Amino acid sequence: MAKIHKKIKKHATGFRKELTEQLLKLATSGLGLVAALAWNELIKELVNNFIKPFTGKFSGLISLFIYAVIVTILAVTVTYNLTKLIKKK
Can you spell out the DSSP letters for the chain? Predict the structure, then answer.
């Protein structure tokens, strides 16, 4: 009976650890999404306020292009730096 109790306790401890790790990943992903959406809104506002007034007739298309370029540069920069950080460990 003691063997079974130890085995159950070991599995419960492993389950608790795995659950904690998964909850951490979920919380981190959720907060990352919220941060990305906040940056998304900021970039949109910057483009709308500072780029659109100067582009005239084609402001919608040009603004979307500039927005896409900014987001792409930001994504590549963040991904590159995170990859370098992970490789250092």
Answer: -HHHHHHHHHHHHHHHHHHHHHHHHHHHHHHHHHHHHHHHHHHHHHIIIIIHHHHGGGHHHHHHHHHHHHHHHHHHHHHHHHHHHHHH-
68 contacts 61 by C-beta, under 8 angstroms: no
| Number of domains, the chain | 1
Residue linked to tokens 């483009």:
47
- Block residue for tokens 């079974």: 4
Q: What is the pTM of this model?
A: 0.58
Find the domain containing 68 and state its range: 2-88
pLDDT digits (tens, 9 = 90+) for 28-41: 899 889 988 998 89
